[in-house]
Design brief:
Oligomer: single chain
CATH superfamily of the largest domain: MFS general substrate transporter like domains
Shape: globular
CATH class of the largest domain: Mainly Alpha
Number of helices: 16
Distance between the termini: 41 Å
């Protein structure tokens, strides 16, 4: 009887992890598809009225941030699983709404931008918090890397498949994809978690008073700003080579996400992030010295892809789950994802100005600020418990000792 209960417990744990994987994977890939729907909707306005198109795009990112923060409170009023089911269903419906609009004018454009942004943002914190709840310190990094690997490959495949297709096809694909994710998630029947007595309510202000949180949040915020600011300059400099950079990014970034996730669970998150920051800083430094050298372009593309593969899974899925142990994880994830979307807003604002900056100067500044951003990380505590690291080192030592004994008798 005891063995049967233990087996059921292990089976239930694996099922919950699979459900969390499916939830995040279908959410990230659906977001990419819904973003394609939005792009197809605002692109005609870029020719007619560029300022309106930019404002609408800024409204899209603003809606994600605003409703993400609002959504972090939603779990107080509803059960999380029910909330996630409704969120995925609403996401599928919102993907199809643009098909019902006969023409594209300013008001319709703003309506679609707010609709798609809000329907994605409002459930994002609960989605990521569910992933953190269904994983633990020992496997959170590895699963995060696998999620990004699969998501990147599917997003790239879908992008190629839907290339040069009209709004109708993309919207239908996005809606159908969200429904498939909802069905698979429901079929797995993940267990509704129960709140423990230690699960305390926290305020957003208390997050910014938390030293551990800030020591990771500040570098992540700096990295997001630098990458978004430098992106227009890189695209302008690379020209046709920019397409090759995207391919390199998917290939090397996906591999780095898996490998980095595995090492993050073995040696810690901090050292992986430090390596990524330092390497991308060196890559920018090389690009500032020889901005027109094709060999340096390839070097930068590979290093940048690896850095992205290491940084994004850790800062989107892993770190905030580690830091929010026994607390309201939705709020950690709501604030933790703000830098990525906020940087998207700033890119739209500063793009006309940064293109006037010489590449050498822009890349030198990027390298400098990336090295500065490393400073808080040097003082940040490791989020992977030292006990887990020591236990794995001891286990590996014992296994090596056994093999040596068997080999030499």
């Amino acid at each position: 009887m005891q063995r049967e209960k233990q087996y059921l417990s292990k089976f239930e744990t694996k099922r919950n992890k699979l459900a969390a994987f499916i939830l995040v994977f279908f959410t990230l890939s659906w977001w990419s598809m819904s973003l394609s729907v939005f792009k197809n909707f605002y692109q005609p306005m870029e020719t007619l009225n560029p300022s309106i198109a930019i404002t609408a795009r800024a409204s899209y990112f603003t809606s994600i941030i605003t409703f993400s923060i609002m959504g972090s409170f939603a779990i107080k009023r509803s059960r999380r699983l029910s909330f996630l089911y409704y969120w995925m269903l609403i996401g599928a419906i919102s993907s199809l709404i643009p098909l019902m609009l006969s023409s594209i004018n300013e008001w319709q454009l703003f309506f679609v931008s707010v609709l798609l942004g809000s329907t994605f943002g409002i459930g994002l914190p609960s989605c990521l918090a569910f992933f953190a709840d269904m994983t633990n310190f020992e496997n959170r990094g590895s699963l995060s890397g696998v999620v990004f690997l699969v998501s990147n490959l599917v997003i790239a495949a879908v992008a190629v498949t839907l290339l040069n297709t009209d709004l109708k096809v993309i919207a239908l694909a996005a809606g159908a994809w969200r429904v498939v994710g909802l069905i698979l998630f429901a079929l797995l029947k993940p267990k509704q978690e129960t709140k423990t007595k230690d699960n305390r309510h926290i305020s957003f202000s208390s997050l910014f008073e938390n030293k551990r949180f800030l020591l990771y949040f500040i570098p992540w915020f700096a990295f997001s700003l630098i990458e978004w600011f430098e992106n227009p300059i890189r695209v302008s400099l690379f020209g046709e080579f920019a397409a090759s950079v995207e391919v390199i990014g998917v290939a090397f970034g996906s591999i780095a996400a898996v490998v980095g996730g595995m090492f993050a669970d073995r040696i810690g998150r901090k050292i992986i992030v430090l390596y990524a920051f330092v390497s991308i800083g060196i890559a920018y430094a090389a690009l500032s010295i020889m901005p027109t050298d094709i060999v340096v372009w390839y070097f930068f593309a590979v290093i940048d892809a690896i850095a992205f593969g290491l940084i994004y899974p850790i800062f989107v899925l892993t770190i905030w789950g580690d830091l929010s142990q026994q607390r309201e994880r939705q709020k950690y994830y709501a604030i933790g994802t703000v830098p990525f979307f906020f940087a998207g807003i700033l890119e739209l604002i500063v793009k006309p100005y940064v293109l006037s900056v010489r590449p050498e100067a822009a890349f030198s500044l990027a390298s400098f600020f990336l090295f500065v951003a490393v400073i808080p990380l040097l003082f940040a505590p490791e989020t992977l418990p030292e006990k887990i690291i020591k236990e794995r080192e001891l286990k590996e030592y014992i296994e090596k000792a056994k093999k040596t004994k068997e080999k030499y008798g």
